[in-house]
Write a structure and sequence with these properties.
The complex is a heterodimer.
Chain A lengths: L1 H31 L6 H46 L5 H23 L14 E4 L2 E4 H23 L1 H11 L1 H6 L4 H23 L11 H5 L2 H8 L4 H20 L11 H16 L14
Antiparallel strand pairs in A: 1-2
Chain B lengths: L1 H6 L3 H4 L3 H32 L2 H26 L7 H16 L1 E3 L4 E4 L3 H18 L1 H4 L4 H21 L1 H4 L5 E2 L4 E2 L2 E2 L7 E3 L2 E3 L1 H25 L1 H10 L2 H6 L4 H27 L1 E2 L6 H14 L4 H22 L3 H4 L5 H19 L3 H16 L9
Classes of the chains: A mainly alpha, B mainly alpha.
Chain lengths: ~300, ~375
């Protein structure tokens, strides 16, 4: 039982990280129809900047720098690259972010090198005893921070003027522009927000049980994509549910690997994609995605 | 009624008198065939002068180019994002290895020992079947969702390679049996095939095989593009709704084109495995899927020639950079590798092409030719 509990907690904490990245992906897709393949790398970039800055400024200073870098970088991508491709097809925009991903995914591991970058979290690698198993504080903080961010985001999305304009813009760009919504400002805010969310995810991912930021993190961040697809690319709720679902599923697979050994090694790496295939078979638009009504 | 057709064309064309135009057209055709003949002769005699390093490089590039042509049908023409190429390459390569290797009881490897040509055809066929099996997903998804779903296939392929040890040799991979055709063994270095006193080793023969299959693949794809199916695919790119309104069975065409791209990638997989000499999980990575997209974007979306040019650009670049810049101190200290620089160059090239010239290198070539034509008052073209 205690085994199950600790698995659930680690799954939820991993899932919250996926949910944060997936939420960013969904926000970008809704606000500017960009499927950002480089989003995982933005998370790594944020964590990297936070790690380097925390050597001088300490953890909290590092966090500020990391989030600022991630947000500003996302803003740069929007202002310079996405804006230059106005009216391009969705697939071309996605491929453009793939080009960006190739560059980032080469440069960041090269910068990180073989050493593990410490973020100097005040809670370090400390753990707490819950029901007989040790759970790293970092995991618990991850779940709590995600909870706070997501509640705040959902409230903002529902009630703030940004949220209302963004939903209107996602509904119908032209009509919302006609009623005086500044699309370019909405898009900018969305990109900065998505970048910051990715930065938070990256920083959380570089804490316990991982010793710090490692180059393999980019691979983990990739699993936010099936999370976004499972939930539905145009659904905020979907991103959260998809992220948590995949996190828990992955943690369960890894814990009970010995019972599942007939399925082979490394099942935890593919289980999220298998779930994605099943969901797409049943609901091509994702669990919470809105179906386009087309007679074809 | 040729006159009435003429009046509908752009003004530059109406300048030319019909008789002149016919002559120019036949001139153009003669030139085209002359160019093809020259290229064919060069392709035939080049192996006599090139070292095996270059022969191997060209063979690997033709393998990759075949995969890129197939991908270009799905992503370039029909505008359905696909990252599944490494998956299909794994299906093709694995089938070839299993069908043609001898069984190895010591390592517990399965092998049927069939003739290599059976393995080649089997690999292509099974890759197509794999594409069709994915059709319940592929045919119903819009471009971007398909991209994500096919992206998952790459991880499935790596997982299968790692775990189906009896077939793939597991993490360490398995060596690829030598190709053979009509009793000619491709690459027995102890007694090479000798024609008119010239020895033909592995890479000389594979050079011919690669180029012949590349030409066949390009010809097949350009015929698809010119046919009813090609027009249907271009219509699907403009949206599911307009296509279905025009009478295109969207789901069926999406499934078909995905399966055809699977065939192409399956063939590419067999050839690529032959060029490397072994199959291992790390070869068929997600990076390869991204490189394929870079190829078709840089070369020119929807163009067969573009896919080949893009493949040459992306696949050969790390080796060419190593060759050209090998002496730079940063390379020698290991601070940065040629593969790193190649990634920066093609990543940046993808971004720049999409922003400034979405039709890619082929589009630039067309512009250059058109500006030349305009000066000479020859009709310009918009399609390749």
């Amino acid at each position: 039982m205690s085994d199950f509990l600790s698995t659930l907690i680690s799954g939820l904490s991993l899932g919250s990280i996926y949910a944060l990245v997936a939420l960013g992906i969904v926000i970008l897709f809704k606000s500017s129809e960009v499927m950002n393949f480089a989003h995982g790398s933005i998370a790594v970039l944020g964590a990297f900047a936070a790690g380097r800055a925390s050597d001088i400024l300490g953890f909290w200073g590092g966090v500020l720098v990391g989030l600022a870098v991630a947000g500003l970088f996302a803003l740069f991508v929007e202002r310079v690259l996405v804006r230059a491709m106005k009216n391009a097809p969705i697939v071309s925009l996605a491929i453009m972010t793939i080009g960006l991903q190739v560059i980032l995914d080469t440069e960041l591991p090269r910068q990180i090198g073989s050493d593990i970058i410490q973020l100097h979290q005040p809670w370090g690698l400390d753990s707490v005893d819950i029901g007989g198993t040790l759970v790293p504080w970092n995991r618990i903080f991850t779940i709590l921070v995600t909870l706070v961010i997501i509640v705040a985001f959902l409230l903002a999305f529902r009630f703030s003027s940004w949220g209302v304009s963004m939903r209107a813009a996602a509904e119908d760009r032209e009509a919302s522009e006609l009623v005086g919504i500044k699309l370019s400002r909405i898009t900018m805010v969305s990109w900065v927000l998505a970048g910051v969310l990715a930065g938070v995810a990256g920083i959380m991912l570089s804490g316990a049980p991982s010793a710090g930021l490692t180059p393999t993190m980019a691979v983990i961040a990739l699993r936010a994509f099936p999370a976004a697809i499972i939930g539905g690319l145009d659904s905020v709720t979907g991103a959260l549910v998809g992220g948590l679902l995949i996190g828990v599923l992955e943690a369960l697979t890894i814990t009970y690997q010995s019972e599942l050994s007939f399925l082979g090694r490394g099942l935890g790496d593919v289980v999220s994609y298998l779930l994605m295939f099943i969901v797409l078979l049943v609901r091509p638009q994702g669990l919470f995605g809105r179906k386009e009504v087309v007679r074809a | 009624m040729p006159e009435s057709v003429d009046t509908q064309k752009p003004p530059t064309i109406t300048v030319a008198v019909p008789t002149q135009r016919r002559r120019r057209k036949s001139d153009k055709r003669t030139w085209k065939w002359a160019a093809i003949a020259v290229l064919a002769v060069i392709a035939l005699i080049a192996p006599l002068y090139l070292t095996s390093y270059w022969l191997q490089l060209v063979f690997a590039v033709s393998a990759i180019a075949i995969g890129a042509i197939g991908l270009n049908l799905v992503t370039g023409t029909a505008d359905q994002l696909s990252l599944a190429n490494p998956f299909f390459m794994v299906v093709g390569a694995l089938t070839y290895v299993v069908l043609c290797s001898e069984a190895d009881a010591e390592r517990g490897l399965v092998g049927l020992g069939l003739p290599p040509i059976v393995g080649l055809v089997g690999g292509v066929a099974l890759a197509m079947v794999a594409g069709l099996l994915f059709s319940p997903i592929a045919s119903r998804l819009r471009g971007i969702y398909l991209g994500m779903a096919s992206f998952g296939l790459v991880f499935v392929a790596i997982y299968v390679l790692n775990n189906a040890g009896a077939l793939s040799g597991g993490f360490n991979g398995r060596s690829v049996p030598t190709f053979e055709l009509f009793g000619i063994v491709f690459g027995r270095s102890d007694e090479p095939l000798v024609i008119a006193g010239v020895p033909f080793g592995r890479w000389e023969l594979l050079w011919y095989l690669g180029l012949a299959l590349l030409v066949a693949a390009a010809w097949f794809a350009s015929n698809i593009l010119k046919s009813r199916s090609g027009r249907a695919l271009r219509l699907i790119a403009s949206g599911d709704l307009p296509a279905s309104v025009s009478g295109v069975h969207v789901a069926w065409y999406k499934a078909q084109v995905f399966a055809i791209s699977g065939m192409y990638a399956g063939l590419a997989g067999v050839l690529f495995a032959l060029s490397i000499g072994s199959i291992a999980p790390e070869t068929f990575s997600l990076e390869l899927a991204l490189e394929f997209l870079a190829m078709i974007v840089i070369g020119g979306m929807g163009s067969v020639a573009g896919a080949v040019i893009g493949a040459a650009f992306v696949a050969a670049m790390p080796l060419l950079l190593q060759y050209a810049l090998g002496d730079i101190p940063a390379f020698q200290t290991g601070e940065i590798s040629a593969a790193n620089v190649a990634n920066y160059v093609y990543g940046l090239a993808v971004i720049l092409v999409l922003i400034f010239k979405p039709s890619g290198l082929v589009g630039i070539w067309r512009d250059v030719m058109n500006s030349f034509r305009r000066r000479k008052n020859i009709p310009t073209t918009t399609e390749s």
